[in-house]
Amino acid sequence: MKNHNLFVALRAAFPADLERTAIETADGPGAPLYYTWRDLERGTAMLANLLAGLELPAGARVAVQTEKSVEALMLYLAVLRAGYVYLPLNTAYQAAEIEYFIGNAEPSVVVCARKHFGWVSKIAFNAGTAHVFTLDDDRSGSLLDRAAMCSDQHLPVPRAENDLAAILYTSGTTGRSKGAMLTHGNLLSNARVLKDYWGWRSDDVLIHALPIFHVHGLFVASHGALLAGAKMIWLAKFDPRKVIERLPEATVFMGVPTLYVRMLAEPSLSRQACAHMRLFIAGSAPLLIETFNEWAERTGHVILERYGMSETVMLSSNPYDPAQGERRGGTVGFPLPGVGLRIRDDKGHPLPAGEIGNIEVKGPNVFKGYWRMPEKTAEDFTTDLWFKTGDVGKVGADGYVSIVGRSKDLIISGGYNVYPAEVEDCINQMPGVAESAVVGVRHADFGEAVVAVVVPKPGAALDGAAITAALKSRIANFKVPKAVFVLADLPRNAMGKVQKNLLREQYKTLFVA
Ligand code: MLC
Ligand code: AMP
Q1: Is residue 98 within 8 Å of residue 116, measured between CB atoms?
Q2: pTM above the 0.70 mark?
Q3: CA triple 355-359-361, angle to 5 deg
Q4: Quick check: CB of 477 below 6 Å from ligand 1?
Q5: pLDDT tens digits, residue range 360-378?
Q6: Which residues line ligand 2 (CB under 6 A)?
């Protein structure tokens, strides 16, 4: 029987000459470091053997919160190779958030930074995790120490297309995060479609400057390069100057809009610097038309914008091949081959071309459901099994998809999702707080920024700076409001509902010139 393990397909795409460089580090301890394809083969085999030796139960989750490193990428590949389920966690998550994820996912293995071992292991052992390893970005820690003693020969464990490969937590409208269950088939089908659609080649060089705990950096970028047998220039932390310096050696770059905004602010960004590049791709948040136009003027390259989600990987893309159409700013292009995308009104009735409604999708890329949340899963699918994205948009008569808003109460700041309900819950638990409202407002750098309005209880004195400081220890830093206002009350309509649109209007120029 065919082995549908995603690792098998990625491994099959390695070049014949395993001594070629697969990844070159551009920053971090010891840079530049050169990892060959053989290093990836051997390193993932040793890590997979380490996992295999732990005799974990079938379907065991391996939760990972570490700094970005090539070894961390190898760990992801090793989890696939060993047939377990990878669960990446944003490094910004604080103890209470990690406690929820570990409690909810019940991983058998947790890997964390050495400096966090104390509190992470306590949470993990309390939740029943059997093994906690450490991994730092300088290749130290117990994970690699143990893997060094394992064999570098390993046969990828057989997996079916429908077997789980990863769980990605995405915030929920009610404040509780949901684990999106992605299968080997979801990830591989999407990676193959993107390889063809974007014309990936073995002589491509990708500048990888995104975090590897979300869909964009972990799947879209890494799978793209690996499936093409193409080299990556690896930045652990995005630095616009460093990226621009390396463009003359590269052919592909991927980023959230904030990365493009920051590169445009660098005088060194020029046509000449980009002359060797084949493709610039943007996604995860709306790319402003101003950024799209300015980029074309400064570099001579038209950014290709695409659209996706944790639950679905990539859904639509502007064309790469000019014969299929232009790359149109303000749109996310066409549904990818094999992806069904339709627009429905709130009652579920189909809408004609050009009309705005809810975006629903179907395809081999669409996830299996939310981890241990069957009711939530059922709610988010239509009766004919299309997934309700929570995005609002239209499909033009010429087939281009545009996203015009969201029906979900979501803020996207610098490519990270923030659900207002989660931040409000946290603020409302603080002493002296009667209630709060959190909204997203335009931000020149992050696209949107989180702003909170807080109402004190009668007689209580609240201080915005103290609220910010308290939030920093409880939620990831990108969720912490960039401004906190203390007001006597919140604007409400006749029904008593908080009018967030009025707050957005009031603060709309806070972070833009
Ligand atoms: C950092 N900060 C942010 C932030 N990132 N604030 C709001 N939104 C963000 N995204 C704040 C920190 O809280 C900190 O504040 C200060 O900025 C410096 O932190 P830093 O870590 O040094 O920031 P920096 O390196 O500049 O990070 C900015 C960034 C990063 C844009 C490089 O946010 C990033 O890598 N974003 C990419 C996210 C991504 O990969 N998304 C893909 C999701 S997948 P203070 O006050 O503590 O000093 C998905 C599906 C799809 O959506 O379609 O792809
Ligand atoms: P996440 O939950 O992090 O996977 O975020 C997915 C959400 O990001 C989508 O539902 C969209 O709202 C948004 N998104 C992704 N790509 C784009 C894009 N190109 N334009 C607008 N929004 C996008």
Answers
A1: no
A2: yes
A3: 135
A4: yes
A5: 999 999 999 999 999 999 9
A6: 170, 215, 283-286, 305, 307-310, 332, 389-391, 403, 406, 412, 417
